[in-house]
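Workshop exercise sheet. Pairs work together: one partner reads the sequence aloud, the other fills in the structure field after running the prediction. Swap roles for the next sheet.
Pair: D.N. / O.F.
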Amino acid sequence: MQLTTVISNLEFYIESVRKEVVMPNKAPWYLKDSKIAQALEKFKDASDEESFLDAKTKALLKMVAASVLRCHDCTASHIKSALALGVSKKQITEALLMASVMGATTQVSWDLDDFVKYLGD
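Structure field:
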């Protein structure tokens, strides 16, 4: 698949995510009666606060992490957040392409010992 096709597909995906209806703001099911879940939610909220990184950078980092960890719904959610913060489609596309590069090159590094052991130098 050519890079232009990949970029076009990503841009189509970003546009379709942007058009999705946003669900009403209500507490997730896992927060009910769980101190651990409530602590996790506070931890997540604290990570959203602006500090050394601005909100757009944090949105891109979360999106890339969700993509590399292969959480489709999480990636879509973070794309919507990034768009709402004013991150451009081109910036989102490039960040997702960087996630793909990192995912692929990390896998090669992960398998290096087996490559050498079973396939030679």
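Discussion prompt: The chain has a mean pLDDT of 83. What would you look at next?
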